[in-house]
Specification:
Chain lengths: 385, 254, 133
């Protein structure tokens, strides 16, 4: 059913890549064992900044997972045939990204052995409960869709008719996973940085920019290492999606700036001040946020000009800019900024420690391993048929 | 009838014994009654009288009592600190009370801070396992350390910064172990519990009892005749960030 | 024919591995004889019948825990009508089984029960005395 035997046949470069990833996974795992033994004190988290790199990565990669909808929707709902070759890649990317999300949540838990308590004692008024349901469901949906579609392709037959409603279901479900994740943040009365009605739309917009940007980069990598051609039209359309999504995202961010800086309410203002300009001599985060801002504007410049957007050398640069800029914004600035200053006005700088960063790298490597293996299977099936 | 000296001495001796005996009996029965019968209320609350509090004189009796009663660990690293009751300057607790042209009489004074045991607690709303919940009987926001998965969502939700997390094993950092209360373990969140285990034994919270100035008044906010309610009727009081709708049960008398 | 030494070595290794639980118990520090638990001197009756306690004391403790922590119901009426405080440390370990090492741990060690992690948080007087500065 899963055609995993196809992942065991590969070039030397493929195996070296898998070996490198395994080494990183091992390093991350050993650091995690240390965290299990000593507690989360080995991270850079503190009483004031209780969520950091782990939850930030979870938030960012939920977006990447949701972005599969950007290829699924045009292809399945609107018969956009040009995406025919890459829908499977988008779906596999979703599976890998959702798995990374769940792993990031897991490594962040203080008592991971009790994580099933969320299911043993269902709590429908807690957003985290719904997050678990929506992420788990999305994982199952996409895994099922990917493998059914691939199986059909291998057999050379049309996919079974019952998969179509499941595919259609995955579209609103993709939107829901990121909306629920935004709801984790934007309903907390004490965290004014996150208390914005526009947080969920912002999340979706940044997701639909970062995800397809990553997909474009992956397609280009596949062209180089596996001779896979996604199709010029598919890449163009993805580029256009990234452009529109990035425009909407930057627009929404600017909306946030306006409401905060024009109303000048101190509780709202001080978080933005800390994140962009530093507060009371703490400039910890500011350089990264300015980098994110500069990269996003540079990316917009590259994307908005069609000649540049469709230029095969400039598009990857724009995609890298989009991805890094949004990773910094959503994966770091958003979380830390929400906690700083604390409700009592103290500023505690958050710096991830080396063990913490290694665990993060380990989870990234697991995601990369999964995507490598899945893509290998998909491309082998395609080559054979 | 003639009262001899002997009779007089006998009578007064018996009288004294009777009085002493009654006192002793009452003392014993009262101790038995309060020890056996738990304190109950519809909504426990606390009123802290800032006029009486001597924390600006360096007094930390309430903090020390809580730390002792509940095995609170002390870490040198501020980032990993665990505190159920602590103090911070007035301006940080009530930032809107201080402007450029006003200087409140409590400016700079340390204010005792603890979990507010809100009637509408955001932390309870977000907990995915109900490891923290609001007790319907008496309004205490409880913690179940057996169920907590350490996700720290409640810490993100609390607008007052009342909650602490055990980033590491607390035991090495506990000064003196109180055998009547458990320590906690790494990976769970904790906060003030209004001494619910003491209330069950008929005792008042440790901080309330330890305060030499009787600055902390604990009682049933739902009972109009309780001590806290009388104080709240008589004097002006502040709550922390009431505009958030959390409805805290801790009031500060100015 | 050449493979005979290899096969024999493999067979011996398998037999060694297969019988590991038997000879390891003898070589190790655990005696296969029954645990020598020291019963309390003062009380003859536990909060529940002995047979039940042997089977389900952990379930009883969990029920107590849930009831005390989550329902604030702290009194336990035993099968014989006696009322106890629902507390392992204040009732069981304080009043009767005063030495955890001589009672609880012995049976746990024999049965191979790696103790529940209750003791990461709760503590009894002897543990406290040992850890006192």
């Amino acid at each position: 059913m899963f055609m995993f035997e196809k992942a065991f046949v590969g070039s030397r470069r493929y195996w070296v890549w898998l070996l490198c990833l395994s080494a990183v996974i091992l390093a991350g795992f050993l650091c995690y064992l240390r965290q299990l033994a000593q507690g989360l004190a080995i991270t850079g988290l503190s009483r004031d900044v209780t969520w950091g790199l782990y939850i930030a990565q979870f938030t960012f990669f939920v977006g990447v997972a949701a972005s599969a909808v950007m290829v699924v929707l045009p292809y399945y709902l609107h018969d956009f045939k040009q995406f025919g070759r890459i829908t499977i890649l988008g779906e596999f990317l979703a599976v890998g990204a959702v798995t990374m999300c769940m792993l990031f949540i897991f490594v962040d838990m203080g008592q991971p052995a009790r994580v099933l308590n969320v299911m043993r004692y269902p709590t429908p008024w807690s957003l985290m409960f719904w997050d678990m349901i929506s992420l788990g469901g999305y994982l199952v949906l996409n895994a099922l869709i990917s493998f059914i579609m691939l199986r059909a392709e291998r057999e050379g037959v049309k996919p079974p008719h019952w998969i179509k409603p499941i595919v259609i279901l995955s579209i609103p479900w993709a939107v829901s996973i990121h909306t629920v994740t935004a709801f984790l943040y934007c309903g907390l009365p004490g965290r004014t940085f996150w208390m914005s009605a526009v947080l969920a739309p912002r999340f979706l917009a940044s997701a639909f920019a970062a995800g397809p940007a990553l997909l474009i980069l992956l397609c280009l990598v596949l062209r180089k290492v596996a001779g896979f051609d996604a199709g010029r039209e598919a890449i163009r359309q993805l580029g256009l999606i990234v452009t529109y999504a990035m425009v909407i995202n930057v627009f929404l961010v600017l909306m946030e700036f306006f409401t905060v800086f024009y109303s000048r309410i101190p509780e709202h203002l001080e978080h933005f001040r800390y994140v962009f300009f530093g507060l009371d001599g703490n400039y910890h985060l500011a350089p990264w946020m300015w980098l994110s801002a500069v990269l996003s504007l540079a990316a917009l410049a590259l994307l908005l000009v069609p000649a540049w957007r469709n230029n095969p050398r400039l598009l990857p640069v724009a995609c890298v800019f989009v991805f890094v800029s949004l990773w910094l914004d959503k994966g770091l600035g958003l979380i830390v900024g929400g906690f700083t200053p604390s409700p009592l006005g103290t500023i505690t700088n958050y710096t991830p420690t080396w063990p913490e960063a290694t665990i993060v790298l380990g989870v990234w490597a697991i995601g990369a391993l999964m995507i490598t293996v899945f893509y290998k299977i998909a491309l082998s099936v395609r080559e054979a048929s | 009838m003639k009262l001899t000296r002997k009779d007089f001495l006998r009578l007064s001796g018996l009288g004294l014994l009777a009085v002493a005996g009654k006192k002793a009996v009452r003392a014993v029965s009262e101790v038995a009654a309060t020890a056996a019968s738990p304190k109950t209320a519809k909504r426990w609350g606390m009123v802290i009288d800032l006029q009486k509090c001597r924390e600006e004189g360096g007094c930390t009796d309430c903090i020390k009592a809580c730390d002792r009663a509940h095995n609170i660990p002390h870490f040198a690293d501020r980032e990993h600190e665990v505190k159920w009751i602590w103090n911070q300057p007035f301006e940080t607790v009530f930032p809107q009370a201080q402007t450029d042209y006003t200087r409140q009489v409590y400016a700079g004074h340390p204010i005792a801070l603890l979990c507010n045991h809100c009637a509408n607690p955001p932390c309870v709303r977000v907990c995915p396992t109900q490891a923290t919940w609001k007790r319907e009987d008496d309004g205490i926001v409880m913690m179940d350390w057996h169920r907590c998965i350490g996700c720290r969502y409640c810490m993100a939700a609390c607008p007052y910064g009342s909650r602490s997390f055990n980033w590491q094993d607390p035991r090495p950092a506990i000064a003196s172990l109180n055998p009547d209360f458990p320590t906690r373990t790494k990976g769970v969140v904790e906060k003030c519990n209004f001494c619910e285990e003491r209330l069950a034994r008929g005792q008042r919270p440790a901080c309330v009892e330890a305060c030499g100035e009787k600055a902390m008044v604990f009682g049933d906010l739902a009972d109009p005749d309780s001590e806290p309610r009388k104080l709240l009727r008589a004097r002006f009081s502040l709550q922390r960030e009431p505009e958030l709708g959390t409805s805290p049960s801790v009031y500060y008398l100015v | 024919m050449r493979d005979r030494p290899l096969i024999l070595t493999g067979l011996l290794a398998f037999v060694w591995l297969f019988t590991l639980p038997v000879w390891h118990a003898y070589a190790g520090k655990y005696s296969p004889s029954a645990p020598d638990v020291k019963l309390p001197a003062n009380e003859k009756q536990c909060v529940a019948p002995t047979a039940y306690m042997r089977d389900s004391h952990m379930q009883l403790l969990i029920d107590w825990r849930e009831d005390v922590v989550r329902n604030n119901r702290r009194q336990f009426t035993a099968f014989n009508g006696k009322v106890y405080d629902k507390s392992l440390t204040r009732t069981c370990l304080a009043q009767c089984h005063t030495n955890k090492g001589e009672f609880c741990d012995r049976c746990h060690a024999y049965a191979g029960v790696s103790g529940p992690y209750c003791w990461d948080c709760h503590h009894d007087k002897i543990l406290t005395a040992r850890s006192a500065p």
